[in-house]
Amino acid sequence: MPQHITDPAPIPAPGAKTIEEHVGHVRTGTASLSVAHMVAPPGWDEPAQTPTFDEVTIVIRGTMRVEHDGGRMDVGPGETVLCEAGERVRYLNPSAEDACEYWAVCTPAFSPDAVRREGE
């Protein structure tokens, strides 16, 4: 039976970033994928990670910087980045003034154990 999600689940995140999971382990018990809406405040960053899931990030407003072993890229509104499982990446909002709003789709679903952030 289809599930109508009207109340996404808040997920704890490093810094003041907000995460609202619409589909995934917490909200729907789905292990195959997760879909979350996120807002990263100005200057936000998190430790590097080497997740065990593929992650598609679709930026709605602002800029998401993705640092990776080959360099870095800035992803702007209407742009998408695919980071594959096993790639070491670090996400941050390089703006000192503007928030970055985006959607993330992970397969299999995001979990704290699967993200493998450095220092945790």
Main features:
1 helix; about 120 residues; six-stranded antiparallel β-sheet; mainly beta; about 5% helix
What layout of secondary structure does this protein have?
Elements: E1 9-10, E2 18-23, E3 34-40, E4 54-61, E5 64-68, E6 71-75, E7 80-83, E8 89-92, E9 100-107, H1 112-115
Antiparallel strand pairs: 1-2, 2-3, 3-9, 4-7, 4-9, 5-6, 5-8
Explain what the structure shows.
With 120 residues, the chain is mostly beta strands. Helices cover 3% and strands 41% of the residues. The chain contains one helix and nine strands, in the order βββββββββα. The protein has one helix at 112-115, and strands spanning 9-10, 18-23, 34-40, 54-61, 64-68, 71-75, 80-83, 89-92, 100-107. A six-stranded antiparallel sheet has the order 1-2-3-9-4-7, with no helix packed on it. A three-stranded antiparallel sheet has the order 6-5-8, with no helix packed on it. Strand 5 and strand 6 (71-75) form a beta hairpin. The mean pLDDT is 95.
Q: TL;DR?
A:
The protein is mainly β and 120 residues long. The protein has one helix spanning 112-115, and strands at 9-10, 18-23, 34-40, 54-61, 64-68, 71-75, 80-83, 89-92, 100-107.
Give helix % range. under 10%
Q: Which whole number gives the mean pLDDT?
A: 95
- What structural category do the secondary elements indicate? mainly beta
Give the topology string: H per helix, E per strand: EEEEEEEEEH
Radius of gyration in whole Å, from Cα?
Answer: 14 Å
Largest sheet: 6 strands, antiparallel
Low-confidence stretches: none
Q: In which order are the strands of the major sheet placed?
A: 1-2-3-9-4-7
Q: How many strand segments? A: 9
Q: What is the CA–CA distance across the termini? A: 38 Å
What percentage of amino acids are in beta strands?
35-45%
Dominant shape = globular
The number of helices is 1
